[in-house]
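Review form for a predicted model. The reviewer records the input and the model, then writes brief findings.
Reviewer: anonymous (R2)
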Amino acid sequence: MHEVRRTKELTSATTSHGTSYRYDVGCRCDECREAHNAKSRETKQRLRASRSQREGGSVAERLPPTPPPSTASASMRSNRHRDTAPELRLRRALHKRGHRYRIGLAILTAGRRVRPDLVYTKRRLAVFVDGCFWHRCPEHGRAPSDPSGYWTAKLQRNVDRDIAVTEALEADGWRVIRVWEHVPLDEAVNLVDIAWQQGSHGTGLACAGA
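Model under review:
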């Protein structure tokens, strides 16, 4: 019998560790590993359902717990949440023009925590660099072939979140700039630079490459 070091409650049948309906987190046997995975799936489903309720029952609640095997799944695993190549190019170009900004700063709005890619705190300017695939660019975005509908729902959820984030920031007095990754660097830099020079007097949403 394995020695139980750390335990969590098990919602399914008993394991070889006994009849107490518990499993060993550090154990590598098949029973404990499957029990741990089942508990993790249950937790993710509960969090997803809770988020759907807060967002008013969006398309997220129809999302399966795991994506189907595809090239998009592999791409998502290797996808960076920040410091992507388009972000780095834009940041370096803006820095050369004398811009000073915050990276990944959390902004608390009414009922939402937002992390723009670049934040100008004094000018209340938030800049997002959106990937063409993950944010469904109207020019280059296309969903992978998937009979389950997972990726269609996943990408639409991203679009819905982008809209909600923009509205939340604008309602809190922020100006928002969204730049597609395919936009030429000079055009993206000029868009941000114009908004930056306006200080806190500019208004509305500015998009590059829409």
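Findings: The longest strand covers residues 125-130.
Further findings: The chain has five helices and nine strands.
Recommendation: see findings above.
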